[in-house]
From TrEMBL, chains A, C:
Domain Acyl-CoA dehydrogenase/oxidase N-terminal residues, every copy: 4-96
This protein's UniProt keywords: FAD, Flavoprotein, Oxidoreductase
Protein name: Acyl-CoA dehydrogenase
Origin species: Naumannella cuiyingiana
GO molecular function ontology, one term from the record: medium-chain fatty acyl-CoA dehydrogenase activity
From TrEMBL, chains B, D:
Gene Ontology CC: one annotated term: plasma membrane
Domain called Acyl-CoA dehydrogenase/oxidase N-terminal: residue spans: 10-121
Name of the featured protein: Alkylation response protein AidB-like acyl-CoA dehydrogenase
UniProtKB keywords: FAD, Flavoprotein, Oxidoreductase
Signal sequence coordinates: none
Requisite cofactors: FAD
Biological source species: Naumannella cuiyingiana
Any single Pfam family the record assigns to this protein: Acyl-CoA_dh_N
PROSITE patterns: ACYL_COA_DH_1 (PS00072)
């Protein structure tokens, strides 16, 4: 499996080296996404990682999915992989359906109402990539779980929106839209959607941070001030080391949450991944920018494009604060004697569920 | 350290009231506040301020100034910043160029430049940084060669805010070759940004906006009378200049609007955590402001508060960044760069600009070395 | 007035140099207080600063009181000045009474009940210096203000307690105790008690921090490692500068809150002083200890005795968090347009009250 | 950086279960948890652990050890720390002295010391620091003069934890005069703390408790066979030794009890802010622990994770301090050093001890320099 992972990583890195160049990243910010990169990811099957082959995907577990997300984050590649494969693809598979879409996106949509004739009405804010999606999956939570409805992209009204990196986060208005298809999921299914959304953003963050660290190490090794590389100054070393530490934490939290051949994420691991990654995004961007000085504040230099993603992704899928409250409530409910078993559960989800 | 609390005199309070009244009248109802020094560049607004006597306040009357105090200037500045007023056209000229020319320039330079700056008619950029010279100013490579009647200037300056809008900039350069003492042989030349041999290229900021420029100087002829002070005294000029710009309200007020509009958004439904945030940010603003004001009083009393200035800048710029994180914590959700409320708008811009607060005007690392040495003195 | 202040400061510093030596500080930690220092402060009248001469005190405003507190904090002098003069003395004066006590202390005591015959029953936790006090003033809050009752020190049962600096913080049990005297105060009076208590601890903190900074500058200038004073290393400079910054903030907040000839403290200023000073205590102690290394962790070295006080005083009189919530609630209630007038009110309490 | 998540094997899980069961049985109901390495010094407890095979786990069987892995040792250690078990008697000997003697000592030294350490019968202190030598170990002044059959040792060691309770300590000293290379001429001597020429004076800790000592060496005779390895190889020994002690659970677990007893105290009335604190601390523990465990796996695979160890120590010791502040924030009131609950007791002790976490075993500043260089390699 670790060979597979290395292969996926190096193949993706090469592919994104061609399709998510600085020019592509700039162009994607006008378009709201990187269509070319997505097309290649689809053609090569990487877009289907995490979806079983039986359901039209490329197979692979959450570990492989995290590798894909890490490379996408690293390359600032604005593509709907998380929504298409990990949410929409996974929900369809779970319902025994094939997702027939070039670009699917998905969003939890508490603001929608379902009429007696099953048509949908209302507004969904900040739907990733909606303008480019031929299928929009809305997940409408209720007391027993949620209704899932698949909408045709051209059946809804879209108002473009964006995040800091100019990735599409669009408003979707539904005025009595009939879904292409719909079904029910239970509360566990709804929780998985939320955990997967958080996890996916954490994995993107970890990938971006690895690149931020490389840039910071390189820049501070090359930039000379007062006759020597600035990386020789203790004050700058502190920024580099803090960046490395946060990168290690985010990466470890993500990899450990996905570790094993698991199909499902659990709350402690996915929440921890998002909490640690979101905090790492904040701390690392402060230190890496301070180490870089003014050059880091320019649009051309790669650090800025990564920072703008980090500032978006730390909040998307739930803030560190949101997940901390959820995790803390669960820990307290489990009780005093469950705290250490949970903390020391490592990659063992079964140990967490017993805690 | 010599910080002392200070109260505003009756005339100072009157000045403040006047500025508040002016801003109430002048800023339109749909005014979108700017973030500190990065606020809008609005020549008409600057001229109106000048007409009220609020530019060049601490400049002598003989150069068109108003012979007022550093505290008076502080009061006007903090009121402008509290409203996010469009001070971009005059700010650098007023804070830095006019005092520098007054202190180091020839009488002719003073008469030529200062009255126009004070009138809000002449706008300056700063020309210190270079591609290979950031904190280490003595390593500048831009150089001027002596020619008949002046100097031929070549090199590249970078991070030049508003060079595309302003009239002049003061260029730190070598006027004699690099010798053993790196601090010798530097001068500041006052260069017309509209000179045909000056090329200004935008450096797009992180979010695509245009503040910074790269300025290429290709055999720009600078007459002798445009060398600031004596040739070779550039190092002394810029180091004392850096001290001017350190500790004013522009070093802690950039994100004040976040507090104001956070209160505006949540005041009727404040939860315990949000109340805590409002209280903490308020307490720290109140205190940092007093430190900054105390420095202005020391300057008016003829003191040289180098350590105090450095400490206040370090405290203030870090605090500006802390405010962003504290308010973001209170908002607790996705920040929409196109958000509909002023809070959302300001927060989004602050997040993107925040890293620069501790870089401009000398990085935190350099400041701490200054402060640390001073504390031992 | 500033001459007076300098005189008070230098006289106190000399006096405490004799009565709060390292040996006295160690002895005070066994006894729970420094009786000798208090006796001299009483004899010389410094213990009465802040209480009008007409009421048997030495006169002086809150500015002079802050100077006294600053010197006491600086010298680690464990004496009941805050409680004796600023709370008990002030409450007595306000009621037109003379406080007849060698050592008075005072505490807000929500846990006490007043019987029909005016006797008191219940427990008060963590009363400063109770074991040494001949008069204990309890302030029992209710809906309209509070009842103030003066108790004889020997009429109550005392269980010794302490803070981190082994300063007496005793439990006081009342089993139907008849007060020596009692009266009512209104809600404003009760609020002043709370603000004065917070302010007094902030002033002690500011004084202690000034000394912490001196020690840190001296130590890092003298201690040599790798061939030069450690204060030449950027990493250590950072600790020194952060300590200086926090000291400046705490000192300014305290002095500005007291500034002017005011009799009363207002919420924004007193709360700000305690918020800023409590945070400064935490931040400075971290940086000063890191700059000092192991020597700072020993009982003999002066830093430790200051740190233990800072760790106590930051919480006593209300935590930073408590006062932040109170101040924040007040700011929000005053409304959007009042925020800037309040922040910029400076030393002008009238401007704050208009805000 | 080469951190990889790792799962515990069935036998590792069994070991953990065994340790948990042992601690449930051995720790009394009224056990007051210690704070990490500063927990109680209880020879009987250490001997019981030894009897279970849980000391010297990674030491070869021929020296009385158990030929187990760094991960096995990690598992035992973290379980002990999670319970605040009294590991003070054996901890330094087991973590540091036994592996050092194994690696650098003579065969005779190995046979003489290691089996007793592994049995929990022989306790070691560390003798690196001196009054004038903190982070800069090469500047030690303690010196040994060659005499017939051994060395005469003179000098003073400081911050020697548990010297008043332990049997031996390894003294870093000069065995040949300071030359051009400061790192040459240093050796470690194994010194009997009960020698009549060794004087041990307590250095009271901040709160009056006794952990530290000053150890005076006044013409202490040390036989030749008590020089660790070859004379002159002390520098290489201590620098590699520092790497051992960097990244284990003792670097992030010292304040774990705060989380546990915070949950215990507030679980039924947790407000939103407290829930947030519990969640954040839990998430960070879970992640830091995996990093530390990953280092143990690298060691077992024969790797040399110097950068990883330094990063984990920096992360972990800072985190131990952060936990104190986060939990203090959740408690929000005066902390009573004589408080009645375990939460109060632990919190008070943690506040007083906390500053030491980022000092012991090499300060943060030194670590960052190590890590920074490694990141460029």
């Amino acid at each position: 499996m670790s060979n597979d992972i290395d292969e996926i990583r190096s193949a993706l890195r090469a592919m994104l080296g061609d399709t998510s160049t600085p020019e592509h990243v700039v162009a994607a910010e006008s378009a709201g996404w990187n269509e070319g990169a997505w097309r290649v990811l689809r053609e090569t099957g990487f877009a289907g990682i995490g979806v079983p082959e039986s359901a039209g995907g490329s197979g692979g577990t959450l570990t492989e999915a995290a590798v894909v997300l890490g490379e996408l984050g690293r390359a600032s590649a604005s593509v709907p992989y998380a929504e298409h494969a990990l949410i929409a693809g996974w929900l369809a598979t779970r319902a025994g359906k094939q997702l027939d879409a070039q670009v699917a996106t998905a969003a939890v949509a508490p603001g929608l109402s379902v009429a007696a004739d099953e048509t949908l009405r209302g507004t969904v804010q900040r739907v990733p990539w909606a303008r480019s999606a031929d299928r929009i999956m809305v997940i409408i939570p209720d007391d027993d779980g949620a209704s899932v409805a698949v909408l045709a992209g051209d059946s809804v009204a879209i108002t473009p929106g964006r995040n800091f990196a100019d990735e599409a986060r669009d408003r979707v208005d539904l005025d009595g839209v009939a879904p292409v298809e719909s079904w029910r999921i239970d509360a566990d299914g709804l929780e998985q959607v939320r955990l997967r959304t958080a996890f996916a953003r954490a994995a993107l963050i970890a990938g971006a941070l690895a690149r931020v660290l490389e840039l910071t190490v390189r820049y501070t090794g090359e930039r000379v001030q007062f006759g020597r590389p600035i990386g020789r100054f203790q004050a700058v070393q502190r920024h580099v080391v803090k960046t490395a530490e946060q990168t290690s934490l985010a990466t470890m939290a993500v990899e450990a949450a996905a570790h094993g051949e698991r199909e499902e994420l659990d709350l402690p691991a996915a929440a921890s991944a998002k909490i640690v990654a979101s905090q790492a995004a904040t701390i690392s961007s402060a230190h890496s920018h301070q180490a870089h000085g003014a050059i880091g504040m320019t649009k051309e230099y790669e650090l800025g494009q990564l920072s703008r993603r980090l500032w978006s992704w730390r909040d998307e899928g739930g803030t560190a604060q949101h997940w901390s409250r959820r995790l803390g409530t669960a820990v307290a409910a489990a009780g005093t004697d469950a705290v250490w078993p949970l903390v020391s559960s490592g990659t063992d989800a079964a140990a967490r569920s017993r805690a | 350290m010599q910080f002392a609390p200070t109260e505003l005199s009756a005339s100072e309070q009157q000045l403040r009231d006047d500025v508040r009244e002016f801003l109430d009248a002048e800023l339109p109802d749909d005014h979108v506040p700017g973030l500190g020094m990065a606020a809008g560049h609005d020549p008409e607004f600057s001229r109106k301020l000048a007409a009220r006597g609020w530019l060049g306040m601490a400049i002598p009357r003989e150069y068109g100034g108003h012979d007022r105090t550093a505290v008076d200037r502080f009061i006007v500045t903090e009121e402008l910043l509290a409203r996010g007023a469009p001070l971009g056209a005059h700010f650098a000229a007023d804070r830095q160029s006019a005092p520098t020319i007054l202190r180091f320039g020839s009488e002719e330079q003073r008469r030529r430049f200062i009255p126009k700056i004070v009138a809000g008619e002449l706008w300056f950029s700063l020309g210190m940084s270079e591609p290979d010279s950031g904190s280490d100013l003595s390593s500048v490579r831009t150089a001027a060669k002596k020619v008949d009647g002046g100097w031929l200037l070549n090199g590249t300056k970078i991070w030049t805010s508003n060079a595309h809008r302003n009239h002049y900039f003061a260029v730190l350069c070598r006027t004699s070759p690099l010798g053993e003492d790196r601090h010798q042989g530097l001068s500041q030349l006052l260069v017309d940004l509209h000179d045909e041999n000056v090329e200004i290229r935008p450096i797009p900021f992180l979010d695509g906006t245009h503040h910074f420029n790269e300025v290429h100087l290709d055999d720009v002829f600078v007459p002798d009378d445009m060398v600031l002070g004596e040739p070779g005294s550039g190092w002394q000029q810029v180091t004392s200049e850096l001290a001017y710009e350190r500790s004013g309200p522009d070093r802690f007020m950039s994100t004040f609007g976040l507090l104001k509009y956070f209160v505006d958004t949540y005041r009727d439904e404040l939860d315990a955590q949000q109340a805590r945030i409002v209280g903490e940010v308020t307490a720290r603003y109140w205190t940092v402001r007093q430190l900054s004001l105390a420095v202005a009083r020391i300057i008016d009393a003829g003191g040289a508060p180098a350590v105090e200035s450095a400490l206040v800048k370090d405290i203030g710029t870090k605090f500006e960044q802390d405010v962003i994180e504290l308010i973001r914590d209170g908002v607790d959700g996705e920040v929409d760069p196109d958000g509909e409320t002023l809070l959302e708008t300001l927060l989004a811009r602050a997040i993107v600009s925040g890293p620069a607060f501790t870089l401009r005007g000398g990085t935190t690392e350099i400041l701490r070395s200054v402060a640390s040495k001073g504390l031992r003195a």
